[in-house]
Amino acid sequence: MFPSHGVANLTQQWLQRYGWEILPHPAHSPDLAPSDFHLFGPLKRHLGSMAFETEDDLISELRNWFDNLDVDFFRVGINSLLSRWQKCIDLHGD
């Protein structure tokens, strides 16, 4: 038996015991993953046509970009999840 299988069963039992509704969802939904709908677009635009001679140069630029993001960038991404989740629920996952 895979070790996490037991944990998954315990989790399902706990959810059932407390009457929590388990919502079905696709394994991966880009419109519900903040990294996909909020992070990668701006990062791709920032990197644009930049070329890096070494992996360290790329890592340095990524660190610089993340370090200079305003806290509101993350707040907006997280806050937009609510409307995205609600839309998904209203459309029954479609």
From TrEMBL:
InterPro entries: RNaseH_sf, Transposase-MT_Hybrid. Gene3D superfamilies: Ribonuclease H-like superfamily/Ribonuclease H (3.30.420.10). GO terms for molecular function: nucleic acid binding. It comes from the Eukaryota. This is Transposase.
